[in-house]
């Protein structure tokens, strides 16, 4: 029995007039104008009753379709790290039909990287 794999097609991205990242294929923005993490916290975390739902459990698993830029993951991870009542383990499963290419991720990160500063600092 042979298995055939179909390669993933990378996301086709552009930037709209407001500077937001958009999917050229679907005509959709990757986050709202009010802020990417704010949207992830309001829609993804609050919409799923988190962090309240994981409290009192030894572990918690989240399955998400559509990883996109990973903003929901970052908001989830931040909420888990900041919650003193968090479970010991957080498992995240996510799928993405059109992941970003390495070049697009590098360009996006470069756009938002802080300016170099003398001395020691912490970005995250």
Task: Explain how this protein is built.
The chain is built from 3 helices and 5 strands; from the N terminus they run E-E-E-H-E-H-E-H. It has 124 residues and is α+β, with helices and mostly antiparallel strands. The chain has a domain of 66 residues. The strands form 2 sheets. The protein has a 3-stranded antiparallel sheet, with no helix packed on it. Strands 4-5 form a two-stranded parallel sheet. The protein starts with 12 loop residues before the first strand and ends in a 12-residue tail after the last helix.
List the helices and strands and how they pair.
Layout lengths: L12 E3 L5 E3 L4 E2 L6 H10 L13 E7 L5 H12 L6 E7 L6 H11 L12
Parallel strand pairs: 4-5
Antiparallel strand pairs: 1-2, 2-3
Core attributes:
124 residues; 27% helix; three-stranded antiparallel sheet; 3 helices; alpha+beta; 18% strand
The radius of gyration computed from the alpha-carbon positions, rounded to a whole number of angstroms, is: 17 Å
What is the beta-strand fraction? 15-25%
Could you tell me how far the N terminus lies from the C terminus, measured between alpha carbons in angstroms?
A: 47 Å
The strands making up the biggest β-sheet line up spatially as 1-2-3
Topology as a string of helices (H) and strands (E): EEEHEHEH
Tally of DSSP β-strands: 5
Give the overall shape: globular
Structural class: alpha+beta
Main beta-sheet annotation: 3 strands, antiparallel
Low-confidence stretches: none
Précis, in short:
The protein is of the alpha+beta class and 124 residues long.
